[in-house]
Each structure stands twice: as structure tokens, then as C-alpha cells.
Automatic annotation (TrEMBL):
Organism field: Octactis speculum
Full protein name: Galactose-1-phosphate uridyl transferase N-terminal domain-containing protein
Domain of life: Eukaryota
UniProt xrefs under SUPFAM superfamilies: HIT-like
């Protein structure tokens, strides 16, 4: 698929045909479109607009039945502390005992957690070793395979039973029945998915949820430093495991505070088989900046300039610590947007050291407290912008020199969907363009046979 480095693109020396090459293929394509339109058949695949480089994820009927804890999307949100400590039917509340959804019980309670931090107690086995925080890592970066333990848990990572990407199987369960996997990726609609003009890869990836706390009515701003540290540690552990799995090109780490479908505090880790265009665009601009000025733009603009003794950039400084600098972007696109950049130049979030992890935990918690205490617990999105995985040698050299990972936080006015979309720039679509075009052709035909002059357009 499209690369951000034009010199790496081979010239096209082959004729390609996008439309089905035979009447039989065209018939299959039309039948498949009709089935999607009239019968709700599930499909999940990606497409790229070669003119913009942006990706879309077509998730047809993939989220049917997904729970939502937002009664009125247009209403103002209340403080998270005013929510109940446990909510009946919430799949993330402690022990999952309140859930009446058998799908949730089977997927989370019975198949076990991907990893879980438990409170160390006197009844731990001789093989358990408590870490410096007094916790036991119950299932270290492994596939889920057993029932919940008896000890109380601080954090757990589970597979998303409503995955946005089609799960690579088998991975999460021994029998390979992971759910969320769509066999047919719409190849009859686009029989040549590797066509350079119409790229359409399968939307395969890993979808995981970090349940941050057993309590329903808490968040990073209200809990101790360990809370935030465990969330970041879980991201690192899962990212370091998933980067070695097949069909993983990019790993997205993000959270939606009070602006997703579930209020219970959680973060997500999702992999994609392609690099989001938003990341490629940043990479290209960073490479251009480095080529022109001989500097990494994050080092220059987000780290060194804001902490300098003189200069206007210092006016945008919010917080600085031993390892991180927090600023408001020079061209901020929304109120109270923040960027957290590490002082040490590194392209990869997964290279975070233990000292940086502890420092980042404190920084992130303080930023969340600003949003909670000063902005009345405003809903917000958080995303980590890091480098792709499985880079070529040439890409590795470019990213090493000019790319610098950072974290972004930005408040949302009200409840919104699309945390993955906001974190990656990959639009989540539930209607195919071929179906929309068919609908609008029918509308035009209806208008042509109607008495247009009799329609009051005022």
C-alpha cells in the first residue's frame, strides 16, 4: 500500500483492471451489494483514497448489539464521581457479576483475561511474585486461557467482543472461535484488492480493552499514581507482544473519557494492517523538517523551545518534569488541547524506560486532574502517536532521525463516537459507497419522473 516515501515507490509497469473482468464476476458483485443492502450481511475491510492517502474502515453490521451507557447524547455529562460505584449490566464492573449479557459473561469471565494485575494477598501461591507496587501480574502478555483468579484485581485487559477490526484467529481462544471474524472481505465487490488505484486490504487486527479499575465511578484524576501507571504499563506490555504478531503494521493506543459508548473507565489497544494516513503525514512533515533544518521538529518545537529561558514558545508551556514537557500546540485546533512529549528523542512509545514510565504516570494524572477539577470533568480523548512497526531498513533510518513519539489530549464538548477515528484518522463507515451511489441513482431516476416544478423548495 501507499508509502510516505516517494523514492520507494516502484513505477507501475502493469495494466490493472478494477471492474470485474467477466459478466459472472459482475453478477456476483451486484448480488453481494444487494445482500449487504437488503439483508445486513456482515463485512469488514479497509480502503484507501490514493489522492489523499486516507483510509476508511467499512464495518458493515459489525457493531450490532453493542451496549451504550449514554442515555442522551445531547445532554451535558455529569461528574464521573456522581455515577454509581457499580452499574447493573456494565461488562467492566468488578467481577462482571452484574452483567446479564451471556455474551459478555462467556467472553470475559469464562475465557479469562489477556493480562490482569491482582492485589497481592497472603494466599498467593509460591510461584507468584509481587512487584514493587505490591501487585501480581497474573497472566503476563499471553493469550487468555483460564477463569478469573480469586484475588481482587486492580486492572485487567480483555479482548473486545465488539471489535472494530476483524480478529486474527486463532489468538484469544484455544478453539479459534474468537468472534468478530468476517470470512468474506468483499472481494467480489473489488476482486483485485491489491490494485494500486483501489487498495482494499482485509480489516484484520487485534482489539483489546484495558479495564482500568473495578469501580464504575472513578478515573485517572481521582485515583492514585499507581492507577495511571498500570494503564500505561498495560499498554506497553500489550504493544510489545502485539508488534510481533502477523498483519500488524501500526498499534493505536487511545482512551475516551466519558465520550464513548461506555462510561466505565477504559482504554483501548487496536492494531491495523496499514499505517494511518495521519501518522504518515506527520512522518513526511517531520522528515522534511529534519532535511531542511537538521532537527527533529518535536525536539525543537515541543521540548527545547518551550523550556528555553527566552522566546514566545515558553508562553505555551504548561508543565515540565525530568523526562516530559507538556505544552498547548502553537496552532491548537480546539480549546485546552495538550501535547505531552518526552525529552529523550525516540520514535517508539514502546521504548519507554521505567523511570520515564513513572514520570509519565504523574504527568498524565496531573493533566487529567486539570480537565476534571478546572473544566468540570470535561469528556476528552487521549491518543499516543508513535511509529509503525515492521519498518524497512530505510524507513527505520528515517524514523530514527526525524520522528519523535508524543501523546495528545483534547477535550470534547459532548458525548461523541469514534475514539478510534479520532486517534488514527481512519474513518469508520457502515455504508458502502457502491450502496450509496445505487441509492442516489434511484433518487435521481425518481426525480426525473416526478413533476419537479410542483416541489416547493422554499
Amino acid at each position: 500500500y501507499l508509502t510516505p516515501f516517494p523514492s520507494l515507490v516502484e513505477p507501475m509497469t502493469q495494466e490493472y483492471t478494477y471492474l470485474p473482468s467477466s459478466l459472472e464476476s459482475q453478477k456476483r458483485a451486484l448480488e453481494q451489494l444487494a445482500e449487504i443492502r437488503h439483508h445486513g450481511r456482515a463485512f469488514r475491510f479497509m480502503r484507501q483514497d490514493v489522492m489523499t492517502g486516507k483510509w476508511c474502515l467499512f464495518n458493515i453490521q459489525g457493531m450490532t448489539g453493542k451496549p451504550c451507557q449514554i442515555d442522551d447524547p445531547e445532554a451535558e455529562t455529569c461528574l464521573i464521581c456522581n455515577e454509581p460505584s457499580s452499574l447493573a449490566g456494565c461488562p467492566f464492573c468488578a467481577g462482571d457479576v452484574a452483567s446479564e449479557d451471556p455474551d459478555v459473561k462467556a467472553s470475559i469471565a469464562d475465557t479469562g483475561d489477556i493480562l490482569r494485575f491482582e492485589l497481592a494477598t497472603d494466599n498467593k501461591s509460591s510461584t507468584d511474585t509481587a512487584d514493587e507496587d505490591g501487585l501480581v501480574l497474573a497472566v503476563p502478555w499471553s493469550k487468555a486461557g483460564g477463569p478469573d483468579g480469586q484475588r481482587p484485581w486492580r486492572l485487567r485487559v480483555v479482548r473486545n467482543i465488539y471489535p472494530i477490526m476483524s480478529v486474527v484467529r486463532p489468538y484469544y481462544t484455544k478453539d479459534g472461535n474468537d468472534g468478530g471474524f468476517v470470512e468474506d472481505h468483499g472481494m467480489d465487490i473489488n476482486p483485485n484488492p491489491e490494485h494500486p488505484w483501489y487498495p482494499q486490504p482485509s480489516a484484520t487486527g487485534y482489539n483489546e480493552v484495558i479495564v482500568e479499575n473495578p469501580k464504575h465511578n472513578t478515573c485517572m484524576a481521582l485515583e492514585d499514581l499507581l492507577y495511571t501507571k498500570l494503564v500505561l504499563k498495560a499498554m506497553l506490555l500489550r504493544g510489545r507482544e502485539l508488534r510481533h504478531q502477523p498483519e500488524v503494521k501500526y498499534i493505536t493506543y487511545f482512551k475516551q473519557h466519558k465520550c464513548g459508548s461506555l462510561i466505565h473507565a477504559h482504554s483501548q489497544v487496536i492494531t491495523t494492517p496499514c499505517t494511518p494516513a495521519a501518522v504518515e503525514n506527520v512522518a513526511m512533515r517531520c522528515a522534511h523538517f529534519h532535511a531542511h533544518y537538521g532537527k527533529c521538529p518535536v525536539c525543537a518545537l515541543l521540548v527545547k523551545a518551550p523550556v528555553a529561558r527566552e522566546g514566545l514558545a515558553r508562553e505555551r508551556l504548561v508543565l515540565q518534569t525530568e523526562h516530559f514537557v507538556v505544552t498547548v500546540p502553537f496552532a491548537s485546533r480546539s480549546p485546552y488541547r495538550l501535547r505531552i512529549a518526552p525529552r529523550r528523542h525516540d520514535k517508539d512509545f514502546l521504548n519507554l524506560s521505567e523511570a520515564e514510565l513513572v514520570d509519565l504516570s504523574g504527568v498524565l494524572r496531573r493533566c487529567c486532574r486539570l480537565y476534571y477539577l478546572r473544566l468540570q470533568d470535561v469528556p476528552f480523548n487521549l491518543a499516543v502517536f508513535t511509529c509503525p512497526v515492521d519498518l524497512t531498513r530505510r524507513e527505520e533510518a528515517m524514523y530514527n532521525d526525524s520522528f519523535h513519539w508524543y501523546m495528545g489530549l483534547y477535550p470534547r464538548k459532548r458525548w461523541v463516537t469514534g475514539g478510534f477515528d479520532h486517534a488514527t484518522g481512519i474513518a469508520d463507515m457502515n455504508v458502502l459507497p457502491e450502496v450509496e451511489a445505487s441509492t442516489m441513482r434511484a433518487w435521481i431516476e425518481e426525480d426525473m419522473h416526478a413533476d419537479i416544478e410542483s416541489v416547493d423548495l422554499s
